[in-house]
Amino acid sequence: MSYHKPVLLEESVDGLNIQPSGIYVDVTFGGGGHSREILSRLGPQGKLFAFDQDKDALVNKIDDERFTLINENFRFIKRFLRFYGVKKVDGILGDFGVSSHQFDVAERGFSTRFESKLDMRMNQQSSLSAFEVVNNYEEKQLKAVLFNYGELRNAPKIARTIVTARKEGEIATSERLKEILQPFLPMGKEHKILAQIYQAIRIEVNQEIEALKEFLLQTEGLLKPGGRLSLISYHSLEDRLVKRYIRSGLFEGEPEKDFYGNISVPFQKVGKMIVPSSEEIKRNNRARSARLRIAERLA
Ligand SMILES: C[S@@+](CC[C@H](N)C(=O)[O-])C[C@H]1O[C@@H](n2cnc3c(N)ncnc32)[C@H](O)[C@@H]1O
User: Fold this and answer.
1) 49 DSSP β-pair partners
2) Average pLDDT of the residues of the chain
């Protein structure tokens, strides 16, 4: 089984407008599909740094002297690039979320399809797992996770049900969790709702929103003028942050105007949002929710 089929491969790498001698970063290496495409467009002087917090991704490391793989969270992008003597780069690509490998290995706990322990950690060293969230979060916290990250309107009832059930003993496996959630999984919608609940827990376990925000805020200082951001999101919470950040350099509100009423923003968007073609979705169903946004750093 392949590790991961890259999504919007040509479109996202085209979006970087690659300069053959430039320095590029792929912050979500995974199976290395995007990294390989970037390397194929770089000349002998070019450089590519890639990040992935999952140690499983290390098996895909590319043997190329222009390439460096960093097994860390991209929320520390600036710190680790500095460690390699890099202060400014020409382009950054992000293909967020989970790889097919993570979904397809039962014991990682990401997929609703398998029986497994509650885990869902992208970084296997992290102390926060799905087990912690489900068993130790207060009802209020659980409700917020389900509501904010799963966009579940009945989050309060689901949280209450989990808290009541765990009084009878810890909820350690996906089967037990599914059993408890049964009243919220009507026939026909079972998979969709369970997937929303899993998504919410996964975003919390991996602190995905915090990591994305911290990462985005560093891109402004890292990119050279004319440097590009090419970012693929898989759910509306991520895409909203990316869109707002590209528009204004902020996640909320509007940028301040100067004395003359001008606003200064760090990026200019390049083209419109891109989604996969129907052919790509036919070939790779996991591409179906992808949304690509491209931006250029202004001088
Ligand atoms: C959708 S996959 C990327 C697939 C890759 N573009 C390819 O073509 O094979 C996302 C990858 O990013 C990694 N990842 C997600 N969030 C991360 C973070 N905050 N820091 C580092 N890696 C992260 C995941 O472990 C996963 O391997």
Assistant:
1) 25, 68
2) 96
